[in-house]
Amino acid sequence: MRKKSIYFLLFCTFTISALTSIQAAYLTDVPQTLKQPNDEIVHCFATGDEFYSWLHDGNNFTIIQNHKTGYYVYADKSGDELVPTTYVVNKVNPKLVGLTKGINYSPEKMKQMRSSFFKSFPKTKGTKAPSTGGINNIVIFIRFSDESEFTDNISIYDNKFNNTNSDSNSMYNYFKETSYNQLAITSTFYPHTVSTVVSFQDSFPRNYYKAYDSITNPDGYTGGNNGSQRRHREHDLLANAVDFVSSQIPESLDIDGDLDGFVDNVCFIIYGNPEGWASLLWPHRWSLYSNAVYINGIQVMDYNFQLQSQVQVNVLCHEMFHSLGSPDLYHYSFDGISPAGRWDIMCTSLNPPEHMSAYMKYRYGIWINDIPEIDTNGTYWLKPLISSTNNCYKIPSPYADTEFFVVEYRRKIGVFEGTLPGSGLLVYRINAGQDGAGNADGPPDEVYLYRPDGTLDSNGVTNSANFSSNSGRTMINDITNPSSFLSNGNPGGLYIYNIGSVGDSISFRFAAPEIGTEEKQNLTFGLSPNLFVGKTTIQYSIPITAKVSLKLYDISGRTVRALVNEEKTPGTYKVDPAKDLPSGIYFAKFSAGNYRETKKLVLIK
Predict the structure, then answer these.
(1) Which of 510, 512, 533 is nearest to 600 (CA)?
(2) How far is 546 from 544, CA to CA, in rounded Å?
(3) Tens of pLDDT, residues 357-381
(4) Delimiting residues of CATH 2.60.40.3080 domain(s) in the chain
């Protein structure tokens, strides 16, 4: 039997104060302008996050710098290392010379790189901004000593941060909508300006904040992304910027809404573009723990770091949700698995950004007070997630104490949800054992969205995760595609079917994995409790006369044999499923009366 008291503790308990580590934004195809040693310009792209980003051309051929010559060249792979070739970018067609597109470090090596980073910069006591009420977000513009002043009109940023018009894509509107009017974030800009952006100018050039290269950047920081020099340069830069503008911030402005002694949020906007190959010049959230910096007597700690060209509302909102306590939902290993796809801003999003999932609103936004649990057969209805009521359900797994399912209805409508891949019922697996960790180091993942062809090893089609009669996907259980598998790949015991059409609400039928208490007093339907490993006989028993169905499915969900489909009298029966079937994994689905059960069968001949 499942232990509901354990579910409650794991699902509902969390700390307000947290240990904070660096968190980043995953961006794709960020335009880059590189200069070769002969002054030739190379236009390419960067993809990744603050921990690991790489350069590539428009056809996804990887580009690295040859540190012996200083030239940017196409990369090849030797073992698990990227190595420079002799092919200079813009001088050859990489496909014609036999190079492979998309080469990169292995997911395992990427995890090692991040692990090394966290060992260098251990988690520190951080803060989270209040998720309800109001936040006065401080925005500070910065440029380097070798850069001219911003030429942007301040209204560009004011619209992205503060526009309150109902049809506007702004950070204010995003959190107002996603929080169900429980959170208002207003931003003010410094240094003070009336029309055109004014910035704090640092005393060092841009290259000072990029990685060291003996030929092209001898003034860069040594030790790579994990070195203490990188941290000191970043923190000193931001501390100096805060000191420069602090006298302009009025004491009447409430910048500590939760009275924890720390400024709720500071957002630094750095002139220019993000830089590839894991430079500190990439959007991220971190903590200014190296320097004691204050605004009106209140300490600056956690902050958002943004680049001018990527000040898009989706990036602003992703980083701000970090400030509210949310983890990332994408894999830092870039292993090809997108746990939530374009259905949650903390995994992947376009601009305007989509909502975060119902579980994320409940666990980290604290905007949903309770997720109602269902465990009784019946028809249920959901309103779209933009509704503040009746927007999600929780369904425990009968096979795991720390894993459960959350269903929500997403409708492609409005400014923010209008970017969704489609409309329909979404089914998530939540792993409470990963509580607070998100998916960064997954698998296992805290939040996983079921999608066609999705398995432990295959991403599947995330854009088709929406169930509805319109899409033709109306059922999910342990033998459908996708199946309701748990974090370890075993069946999860979910059974949802007859999912309705897209409209103002959506319906679905739920079949409980166990019969009700009243019926259980009289019935003991069920398959033999073993997993049939190495066996070729299925045993089942029924105490009363009932119509029995027993079917065998392969791992793709295809019916391979109907073993029983008739009325049976009380007794114990055995059937042999092995005839003409090859060895492999199957699922035996049993039903009798109102009872149903699915078990894994490993057939070994």
Answers:
(1) 533
(2) 6
(3) 999 999 999 999 999 999 888 999 9
(4) 520-603
Using alpha carbons, select from 285, 165, 159, 172 the residue that is nearest to residue 234.
Answer: 285
Q: Are strands 302-307 and 284-287 parallel, antiparallel or unpaired?
A: antiparallel
pLDDT of residue 278: 59
Coil/strand/helix, residue 573: strand
User: Kind of pairing, strands 538-542 and 571-575?
Assistant: antiparallel
| pLDDT mean over 586-599 | 75
User: H helices within 361-478, ranges in order?
Assistant: 414-417
Residue with tokens 């069968």: 601
Angle at 134 between CA 128 and CA 135, to 5 degrees: 50
Strands 447-449 and 506-510: unpaired
Asked whether the beta carbons of 590 and 597 are under 8 A apart, the reply is yes
Does the pLDDT of residue 177 top 80, yes or no?
A: yes
Three-state SS at 570: coil
Q: In angstroms, how far apart are the furthest CA atoms of the chain? A: 88
- Residue from 50, 49, 19 nearest 287 by CA: 19
Q: Pick 520-603's CATH classification: 3.40.190.10, 3.40.50.300, 3.40.640.10, 2.60.40.3080.
A: 2.60.40.3080
φ, ψ for residue 601, nearest 5 deg: -125, 120
Cis, bond preceding 274 (omega within 30 deg of 0): no
pLDDT of residue 19: 41
Q: Are strands 133-143 and 183-190 parallel, antiparallel or unpaired?
A: parallel
Q: What's the residue count for the chain?
A: 605
Across the beta sheet with 506-510, what order do the strands follow? Answer: 378-382, 506-510, 496-497
DSSP state of 363: I
Q: What is the CA radius of gyration of the chain?
A: 27
- Between residues 230 and 580, which one has the greater pLDDT? 230
ω into 218 cis (within 30 of 0): no
Q: Which residue has the tokens 């939540």?
A: 430
Omega of the bond leading into 352 within 30 degrees of 0 (cis)? yes
Distance CA 581, CA 442 (A): 35
Q: Are the C-beta atoms of 357 and 447 separated by less than 8 Å?
A: yes
| Residue 348 structure tokens | 């992947």
Tell me the pLDDT tens digit for each residue of 103-146: 998 888 877 776 666 665 555 555 689 999 999 999 999 999 99
